[in-house]
Amino acid sequence: MPTDIDIAQQARMQPISQVAHDKLGIPHACLQPYGHYKAKVSLDYIDSLKNRPDGKLILVTAISPTPPGEGKTTTTVGLGDALNHIGKKAIIALREPSLGPVFGVKGGAAGGGYAQVVPMEDINLHFTGDFNAIGLANNLLSALIDNHIHHGNELGIDLRRITWKRVMDMNDRALRDITVSLGGPGNGYPRQDGFDIVVASEVMAIFCLATSLDDLKERLGNIVIGYTRDLKPVTARQLNAQGAMTVLLKDALMPNLVQTLENNPAFIHGGPFANIAHGCNSVIATRSALKLADYVVTEAGFGADLGAEKFVDIKCRKSGLRPSAAAIVATVRALKYHGGQDLKDITQENLATLEQGIVNLERHVQNVSQVYGIPCVVSINRFNTDTDAEIEFIKTRMKKLGVAVVLATHWGEGGKGAAELARVVVDLCEQPNKFSFVYEDSDTLWDKINKIAKRVYRASEVTAEGKVREQIRQLQDSGYGHYPVCVAKTQYSFSIDPKLRGAPEAHTINIREVRLAAGAEFIVMICGDIMTMPGLPKVPSSARIDLVDGKVQGLF
Length: 556
Known about the structure:
Blueprint: H1 4-9, H2 16-24, E1 31-33, E2 39-41, H3 43-48, E3 56-62, H4 72-85, E4 90-94, H5 99-103, E5 111-112, E6 115-118, H6 120-124, H7 130-150, E7 157-162, E8 166-168, E9 178-180, E10 191-193, E11 195-197, H8 202-209, H9 213-221, E12 224-228, E13 233-235, H10 242-249, E14 256-260, E15 265-268, H11 283-292, E16 295-299, H12 304-319, E17 325-330, H13 332-338, H14 351-371, E18 376-381, H15 388-399, E19 405-408, H16 410-413, H17 419-428, H18 445-456, E20 461-464, H19 466-480, E21 485-488, E22 508-517, E23 522-527, E24 546-548, E25 551-553
Parallel strand pairs: 3-16, 3-17, 4-15, 4-16, 8-11, 17-18, 18-19, 20-22, 21-23
Antiparallel strand pairs: 1-2, 2-14, 5-6, 6-14, 7-12, 9-10, 12-13, 14-15, 22-23, 24-25
Helix pairs in contact: 4-17, 7-8, 7-10, 9-10, 13-14, 14-15
């Protein structure tokens, strides 16, 4: 059986200028090509689309992630191809992969099988340099902070209260906590520092929420980098950093246009993690896609408790975007894993563990359809080992919730394998939509995290140490109470314990740390043991990646 990269390398790609012109009507002069098969679309052209009507926005989300995998990105690509296959004009809008997971454990994020975006190697590696630009902008600000302190510290920045970290786009646990400026007076004042991964940077979040270059610069200037001794916030604007940071990001802000294996257009732009950021592709790319097509298929990272909640409560709240329908991705084997089945026999029929695990899917369906108010369908990625009895069991349980189940085979068949899913989604887009947020802007920050924890995670309570509660109170009193809350926690469970599979209830959400993202305009509440700089596993994915006879091997 060919691997994902084998299939991608055999793709018959069309010149991206041809895809842009033939499928979307974008003139060649409005593209900034990166070779033959990648291009950026100019911001001036995007601005010219503002008076066009919007298409329908479709969200792809999933159950809580499992080692067997669910195929959410693969379904996003397959559904986009399927919509085109049944005669609809559709675009997909995805995030860019981070090099940390690519070389770590998760792998790439270009889809799989015959539902991929290409050129797959480029997308999973350096692509068009967007992440490099974001990392440089972030680290320029870090350098300016230490330079300001070195040359007299006119702003009175308290070295103990600097909150801005450096970043790199790689998993490296050794950089989580470090000391900088060692070596004498010429190197500045020593202080504790640390690195986050690029996708956890506030610059990445700002990049994905900004609506224009002017908005980007304004948001960058609002970044709070730390505090003075008397606890007054210090911003990037006070360091005069926002102009130079915007210059580094001006080309990156143009959305990237590529294609699927079936030569359908795809925007891939921005890439914040959904367990430590808001986990959605850029607002600019999504809005542009809605002006250029009748249907836009996008995804939110991880399960519907993390990715979809932030898609709703942060991206939609900030941008005015409203989804018309949602597809919740699951597999039989992943549901059995949630029911406690061992990985070594995960392909064997087991209705008992399926019954135990299906509560995870039910919880996500309830959240999407009842809490977020989005009409939805369950898409089952079909495997040869799935039995008729298992499939029928899932359909029966979903019928009780009033939600259809569609079997999809796009991994092996491309767009035609998800044609039924496409038809169901088109019908859902015409159904009444009761879209709603989990909480109101006017709720306090403490009320917001409680509503997320209790309505979405089904927790019994939220806890925090006294100093964390005081931080939340200070943020509330300082005028940030109207900001959305961005929960950073494990993606593997509704709880903060990644080992609790299924749909745990009456658990406790403990807030370990609170961070202000004043430029992105949300408050990050870090729960449990989640890290903003991941580490590598014992045998990282990089061990399989190689260059043989000029061809990349081992990417997946």
